[in-house]
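Quick one: structure for this chain?
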Amino acid sequence: MRPGPGTRPGRRLLALAAAGALLTACGSPAGGTPTTTLTVFAAASLRAAFTGIGAAFERAHPGVDVAFSFAGSSDLATQITEGAPADVFASADEATMAEVADAGLTAGDPVDVATNVLRIATPPGNPAGVTGFADLAAPGLKVVVCAPQVPCGAATRTVEQVTGVTLSPVSEESSVTDVLGKVTSGEADAGLVYVTDVAAAGDAVTGVAFPESARAVTTYPVAALAGAADADLAAAFVAAVTGPQGRATLRAAGFGAP
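Got it. Here's what it folds into:
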């Protein structure tokens, strides 16, 4: 016989059902805070800094989960213009951000928050003996760079024009993290990434600075997006990035001031 609602087993079932309904309604454990997801699209070179900024933002905003999508800026801009849901966009250059802003997809004007410069990354110990940008054109040297449409690739092209040195890379990658991966895996003798990527990689690579990098400084803007699910929350994240603590985190990761 099925227990009726007035019996002890029946009351127990009703209590369990009510608890289940409460869990479903809240989207979190009973008594917990409902979770709101803030989706941030950010340039791959921002991973270390933005992960730290995101963690601090979550602590300051209980119930908010910052979900990052790190990739090449041009790929992220394409996703946004094609309708991918995102709340905030941080690009590795102003030109890529302009594509999104010109499409009417930013909420207000983007804000410049950091700068970056290129650095050569080699396997630990620099076995090929690379000393500067011109060495990357040496016959037989396996060099990896970013694709031209990616900010780090555009910066590489600028340095080539400034120096008159033309590179013949074995591959062109869609992000600096992919370039770094080719170097750390031993598939390349050298790669052009940002100074912040070399710093984040630690002992996994050896960095080689070159003076011509100062001729191709990259500026990073950030903006809340017009289609943000929570406009106030998106604006608050941008404020966190551009505020004193956010700028300090970026500076600690090796970024320069805008």
